[in-house]
Every structure is written in structure tokens, then in C-alpha cells.
Amino acid sequence: MTTLAEWTEAAAAVEPRNQMFIEGEWVDAVSGATFETINPATGTVITSVAEGDAADIDVAVRSARASFEDGRWASLSPRDRGQALIRLAGLIESHGVELQLLETLDVGKPIRYSRRVDVAQAVHTYSWYGEAADKLYDDIAPTGPNALGLITREPIGVVGAVTPWNFPMMINAWKLAPALVAGNSVVLKPAEQSPLSALRIAELAIEAGIPPGVLNVVPGFGETAGRALGLHPDVDGITFTGSTEVGKLFLQYAGQSNMKRVSAETGGKTPNMIFADAPDLDFAIGAVGFSIFWNTGEMCIAGSRLLAERSVYDRVVEEVGAMSGGWAPGDPLDPATKAGPIVDQSQLDRVCHYIDRGVDQGARLVAGGNRTLTETGGYFVEPTVFADVSNDMDIARDEIFGPVLSIIPFDSEEEAMAIANETRFGLSAALWTSNLGRAHRMSAALKAGTVWVNNFDTSDITAPFGGYKESGFGGKDKSLLALDKYTNVKTTWINLGRGGV
Ligand code: NAD
């Protein structure tokens, strides 16, 4: 399909699943309640989805627990679990158009990206962990001859996954694939803005041979369903991605209940630093658009603070301001569209609030600043660029999670470093320089989980992802390190019978 008309017709034919998926079955909420999931490009209802709350979470956790304890999944050989994940990857690929449309309808993701990024990343993630399944070895402690110390990794049991709406399919895959391959059973509570792709993938998981009860999906709101999962006494671990504020709540829930382990991937305020000696200044400036306007700025790693060395500052401001118009939003079903709407009214209000704060606090509005395409009924906002920002303004301190860029001048490497680290977040940072010593000095000194030198947002499933400070806690997503979150380490001492250990 290559035209807006073709995609619009295909979108109209999609039939989203809208119940919850527990024990391999579609069920309504115990309460019978539903909530509407909205197409943010039009403001219209896509479908009404079963609204899970504490009662439904309890049913789902019981299902996950039973499936874990009877070994229907955990006792399979790693190879068999891995093969099931590889089959799931294949099914996601073969249902790619449907899943791509579900993601575009649910969160407004441009159709040109929802296949080649979201579907493709999900496929790659499930197959990568599936392929890893039977290539992981346990350890033997290097002790003396009288005892054998086995160090083995076991699934933790029932994992609760609570996820955001900005990359639903991809982030769900980052959680589910390692949790499942390690032998856990899972209850997933997707974001209320974006339940649709998760429901379809849970159904495909059954087709792939993942037994009923091993992957349950309970749509619902954070304050009810999410909270209930966090507090449930029979959940062994929570894997969360979302805001820092809610991440902290999960730490509380764990403390108030069974001390379940919590891992949280949370917010960011990435500094993107352009030095005058960048190896290719045009390229560095060109990459700014992608760093903040791609995915409508709804990215935890968004390069929302652009630090520019004084000698190139005016050029950076002028060129970034001019280029921002190229990221003007449009109909996400149009293959020409590079940026879609904001995900919902409340997030749009948040973005507009911060634009007003930027103006009120004296930043210079260089481009954008307004809602747009209001006639569509959707939640569109212009790509917005502020210059002459100081790092203590709200737009430089808080995570906005929209297409709003703050440009901050600096005069020295020391000043850039200080500004970069002066934030409660520590997810990622980027710098552009030809100075090898500076690249190493700064990479080491930046308090961030990922540092990009002369690139932005390079990523791969082979490398861990997660933040420092208030950007993350309790382990990483992606790579084999993610398995640490979903396994307990057991030490078993065997007496070898040679006179005691
Ligand atoms: P959010 O924190 O509002 O919601 C995330 C999830 O938590 C949703 O499923 C939501 O229903 C649930 N939730 C909300 N309130 C809850 C509560 N009181 N108790 C239990 N659960 C609750 O975040 P969002 O708006 O969906 O996503 C945007 C945020 O996610 C941003 O802060 C962004 O930086 C972050 N994010 C981080 C990463 C990362 O890997 N570090 C990746 C993507 C997004």
C-alpha cells in the first residue's frame, strides 16, 4: 500500500480485539466496565476495551501462578521455549500490516515507521531472545575438591509488566521476550492509551505455542489495574517503563506488599551537545530534527536539551529553527507523514502548558508553539524550538514528552558538562566533537546510561538500555543483561563426600 486512500481503507477494515486475555481466553472485566480507546489523529473512538481493575488483576495473577507452578512453560527445555518465541516473531511478521495499523490507529504513529520500526523491532526482539534461549550456561563456583557449588539461574515466577504508550509493541517486547524465555509467566498491563497491539500479540502467542496462562493481558488504568499489579502479594517482580513519578510508586507498592523486585525504566532529559569542532557540523545539526521531533518527541531519549557551543550557536539556532518545519505533523495514515499527533488530550495539554511556561520564563520562541490541524479533531502541535534557554527554566528541567526543543548556549567543555549533568535524569546524552580526548573525558563523566558520540540514538537489541539517577532502577532492558531482571540466582552446595565441605 502506498497511498493515504489505501491505508485509510485498510484501517477501516481492522477489527481490534477489545476484551482482556486471560488463560488463553477472551474475557470481559469482572465489573463489566469498559473504556474507550481513542484515535489521536481524529479524536474518535476506535473501540471500547474491557477495563480491568484489582479483581481482574487477581484472576490474571492466579492464572499466571498456576501456569508457572505446574511447569507447562517453565519446565520446557530452553530450546522449546526459544522456538516458541521464534514462532511468535514469525507470526508478528506475517501479521505485520494488521499490527502496524493497530499501532498507528492507537497512538498516531506514522504508518511509514510503524512497520519498519515498531513491528520490525518486536520481531527482532522476540527472535533474538528466542535464539539465545539454549545458548545460556550456568556457573560452577571455583571452590576446592570437597564440594560442588552450583550457581544456577531460575525464573522468578510471576512477572507483572506495566508499560507506556510511546512504543507499545517494541517496549512490550523488551519486557516479555526476556521474561518469557527465562521461563516466567507474565501479566501485562499495557498503557490505557495503547492496549490494542498487546492484545493481538497475546493471541498470537497462543498460536506460537506459548501455553495459556503464561501471557495474560489486562488492559485498564494505572491507578486501578497498574496499582493492583504493583501491590499484588503473589507477583514476584514488576518490570515497568513509564514516568519517574509512577516508577517511584512501584517501589512503594513493593514495600507495602511482598517486597517484590522492581525494575523501572523511566524519564529522561537528554543533553545533546554540539561542539564547534563536530566532525561534520551539518550532519550534527541535521540530526537534531530526528533527536527531538521523531515520534513527535514522545521518546524517553528525546534530545530535548540542545547545548550549542557559543561560536556556532547562532548558526545552530537558525538552521534548527528552519528545519523544524520539515517535521510538521500530518495524518499518520499518509505515507508521506513524518510526525503524528500527540497521544491524547491530556498529553497535548501538558505540551502546551510547557510551551506557555517557556514563553513566560523568557525563552525565545524560534519556531512553532501552536496547536495545528485542529479541524481534524486530533491532538496535533507544531514542532517547537526555543532558544536562549537557561537550564533552570521548566522547559529545560522537566520531561515534556513532546516536540519541544530547548537550545542552550555554552562557552567551554566544563560548562557543557555541568549543564548536561545538572538534571535529576540520567537516561542518555550525546556529544558531537572531533576531539578524541574530550569524547572520552565527557563520556566517562556523563551520568547517563547511554552516551552517543557523533551519533544520536544508535541502539540495538545486543546492547543494554537503561538510565542512571531518576531515569532507571533495578536492571536494564535489552541484551542478555535483561535476563538478570527475570531470574533468581541460586547457589546449591553438593557435599562430594570426601570428609566434609
Ligand atoms: P506513565 O508513568 O503515566 O504510565 C506508564 C504505565 O504506568 C501505564 O501503563 C500506566 O497505566 C501505568 N500507571 C500510571 N499511573 C499508575 C499508578 N498510579 N500505579 C500503577 N501504574 C500506573 O507514563 P506514560 O505517560 O505512559 O509514558 C511516558 C513516560 O514513559 C515518560 O516519562 C517516558 O520518559 C517514559 N518512558 C521511559 C522509557 C525508558 O526506557 N526509560 C521508554 C519509554 C517511555
Main sheet makeup: 7 strands, mixed
Question: What is the rounded distance between the termini?
Answer: 69 Å
Q: Which radius of gyration do the C-alpha atoms yield?
A: 23 Å
Q: Within the largest sheet, what's the order of strands?
A: 14-17-18-13-12-20-21
Strands, count: 24
What are the segments in which pLDDT stays under 50 over at least 5 consecutive residues? none
Describe the structure.
This protein is α/β, with parallel strands linked by helices. The protein folds into two domains: 4-266 and 471-489, 3-Layer(aba) Sandwich (Aldehyde Dehydrogenase, Chain A, domain 1), CATH 3.40.605; 271-453, Aldehyde Dehydrogenase, Chain A, domain 2 (3-Layer(aba) Sandwich), CATH 3.40.309.10. It contains 15 helices and 24 strands. A seven-stranded mixed beta sheet has the order 14-17-18-13-12-20-21, with helices on both faces. Strands 9-8-7-10-11-23 form a six-stranded mixed beta sheet, with helices on both faces. A three-stranded antiparallel beta sheet has the order 5-6-24, with no helix packed on it. Strand 15 and strand 16 form a beta hairpin. The radius of gyration is 23 Å and the shape is globular. Bound molecules: nicotinamide-adenine-dinucleotide (NAD).
In short:
With 501 residues, the protein is of the alpha/beta class. It has helices at residues 4-13, 54-69, 78-94, 96-107, 111-132, 168-181, 196-207, 222-231, 244-256, 281-293, 310-324, 345-360, 394-397, 413-421, 436-445, and strands at residues 20-22, 25-27, 34-39, 44-50, 139-140, 147-155, 158-162, 185-189, 215-217, 237-241, 261-265, 271-274, 305-309, 364-367, 371-372, 380-381, 384-387, 404-410, 425-426, 428-432, 450-453, 468-469, 472-473, 487-495.
